């Protein structure tokens, strides 16, 4: 018998009747409990119901052979005799209001022997309202919480060098250009890793890969704590910074996993929460870096990566104990290759360069920009670190807002106006740089962080919307709905991986643009002009691809 046992109380106390896993979802069985014939049902959401087996209109003991379904969100069983529907929760007949007929209902429960939870879900239907309300929302929320936690720490490790460069004083012999390169290298590695991380979820399962990818964060944290001391070669630092790129891959696998758990109507908000919680890892590590600088001082950079080792272990353990694998086999076909032929893939990836590329690039480079461009106002790394976390913090908090606005107004429309505002914010930064106005400069950059964060959420909301629109067109043309829905989900997850990888490359370009601008002119103004051109290009692409009347698509 299964370790999970079904028990029913028909008036004589709880009686074990069968193993939970012996029940077939969507079908009923008849069990005898204290002299009563009981129709026991397990629905496709996993919920159990125990009602009388005798049809009150015909007198036949046939209810267990009835058809399960729902009516206005109410789980029902239709009698095989005269087809009346009975509420499985109350036993009331929903079709004969004038006839006081009802089925008796008995309490039913599951008892479990002490055993490890299987953590594998074989039946998952988030678009089914009854399933979602009774089971899906609770399970999805639990997986979301732990996915966000691991992704959050992954972002912190990924952006570790945006803080550590502030510790690298003259004794390390690294100039500002070299420090910008140290922040660009993990960005590049993390962007490349996002593609295999996306596929890994479908191959290994969300829970399994979350645990593995979380434990992988121990490598860069331990290596950094080991090698970071005066006298270490610049090549060694570059190599160790590159290893920190593994933290960048966590985002792609987390988004692909959570995308599988939630229904379409909630994806904008939920993907925004998932990504925003991960993005908060950037200001979190910067705040920890500030605390280390302010207490232990710049001579002790090793403390920062050491702080993350127990956090990584705790997050991986929590994911192992609380998350689930959806029983998806290796996806049919080659979704990355298939979706790469879709022009929407590259349009959305360009937009994501403008939003997420800006967010992560500015997050990694902002502290160095303040030190180099305003040396009189920031004579020490502590002064710069006291401000660097603010922009990434506000941008991370804005990401769920962008997703929520996209759910309400459409991802393309919110993305369009976000790029318009980002162009205005960049103009403000450029003017502030020319006038050497620090307050204006900080205002402009904070706006860019907030807007890029909101744009992250709205751009990602566009992805499932694009494929749902293709699904609707296929259904209208007579395509098999189930196969088309599976393909839609598969392609949406693949595009999230590609867009995440290409978008993260924008962070590399931001750091390279700053490095070259300061090398050539001693100012960031050429870089700001390049960012302005990018945002205007993204503005035009959003309009041409998704908003002009000839291309406008509902739900995108």
Description:
By secondary structure, this protein is mainly α. Helices cover 63% and strands 10% of the residues. It is built from 18 helices and eleven strands. It has a three-stranded antiparallel β-sheet, with no helix packed on it. Strands 3-4-5 form a three-stranded antiparallel β-sheet, with no helix packed on it. β1 and β2 form a beta hairpin. α1 (129-158) runs parallel beside α8, α3 (176-204) packs antiparallel against α4 (206-215) and α3 packs antiparallel against α17. The longest helix is centred in the last third of the chain and has 41 residues, at 481-521. 52% of the residues are buried.
């Amino acid at each position: 018998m299964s370790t999970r046992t079904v028990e029913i109380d028909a008036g004589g106390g709880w009686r074990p009747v069968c193993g939970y896993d012996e029940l077939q979802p969507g079908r009923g069985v008849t069990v005898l409990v204290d002299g009563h014939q009981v129709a026991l049902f397990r629905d496709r959401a996993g919920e159990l119901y125990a009602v009388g087996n005798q049809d009150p209109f015909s007198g036949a003991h046939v209810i267990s052979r009835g058809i399960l379904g729902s009516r206005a969100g109410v789980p029902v069983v239709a009698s095989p005799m005269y087809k009346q529907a009975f509420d499985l929760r109350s036993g009331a007949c929903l079709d004969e209001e004038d006839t006081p007929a009802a089925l008796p209902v008995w309490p039913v429960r599951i008892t479990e022997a002490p055993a490890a939870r299987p953590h594998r879900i074989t039946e998952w239907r988030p678009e089914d309202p009854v399933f979602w309300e009774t089971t899906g929302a609770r399970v999805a929320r639990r997986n979301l919480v732990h996915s966000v936690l691991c992704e959050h720490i992954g972002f912190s490790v990924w952006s570790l060098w945006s803080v550590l460069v502030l510790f690298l004083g003259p004794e390390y012999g690294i100039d500002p250009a070299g420090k910008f390169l140290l922040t660009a290298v993990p960005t590049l590695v993390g962007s490349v890793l996002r593609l295999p991380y996306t596929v890994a979820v479908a191959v290994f399962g969300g829970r399994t890969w979350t645990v593995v990818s979380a434990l992988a964060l121990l490598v860069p944290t331990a290596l950094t704590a080991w090698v970071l001391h005066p006298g270490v070669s610049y090549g060694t630092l570059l190599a160790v910074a590159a290893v920190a790129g593994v933290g960048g891959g966590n985002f792609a696998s987390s988004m692909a996993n959570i995308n599988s758990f939630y229904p379409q109507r909630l994806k904008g908000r939920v993907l925004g929460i998932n990504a925003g919680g991960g993005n908060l890892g950037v200001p979190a590590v910067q705040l920890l870096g500030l605390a280390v600088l302010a207490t232990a001082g710049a001579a002790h950079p090793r403390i920062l990566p050491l702080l993350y080792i127990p956090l990584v272990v705790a997050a991986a353990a929590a994911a192992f104990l609380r998350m689930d694998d959806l029983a998806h086999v290796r996806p049919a076909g080659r979704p990355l290759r298939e979706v790469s032929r879709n022009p929407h893939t590259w349009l959305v990836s360009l937009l994501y360069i403008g939003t997420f590329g800006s967010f992560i690039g500015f997050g990694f480079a902002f502290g160095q920009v303040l030190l180099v461009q305003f040396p009189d106002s920031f004579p020490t790394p502590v002064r710069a670190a006291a401000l660097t976390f603010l922009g990434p913090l506000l941008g991370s908090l804005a990401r769920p807002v962008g997703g929520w606005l996209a759910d309400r107004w459409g991802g393309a429309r919110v993305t369009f106006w976000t790029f318009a505002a980002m162009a205005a914010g960049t103009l403000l930064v450029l003017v502030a740089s020319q006038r050497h106005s620090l307050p204006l400069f900080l205002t402009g950059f904070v706006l860019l962080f907030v807007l890029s964060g909101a744009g992250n959420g709205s751009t990602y909301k566009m992805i499932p919307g694009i494929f749902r629109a293709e699904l609707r067109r296929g259904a209208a043309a007579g395509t098999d709905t189930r196969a088309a829905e599976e393909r839609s989900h598969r392609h949406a997850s693949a595009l999230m991986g590609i867009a995440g990888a290409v978008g993260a490359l924008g962070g590399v370009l931001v750091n390279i643009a700053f490095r070259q601008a300061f090398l050539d002119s001693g100012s960031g103004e050429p870089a700001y002009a390049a960012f302005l051109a990018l945002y205007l290009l993204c503005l035009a692409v959003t309009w041409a691809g998704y908003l002009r009347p000839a291309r406008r698509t509902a739900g995108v």
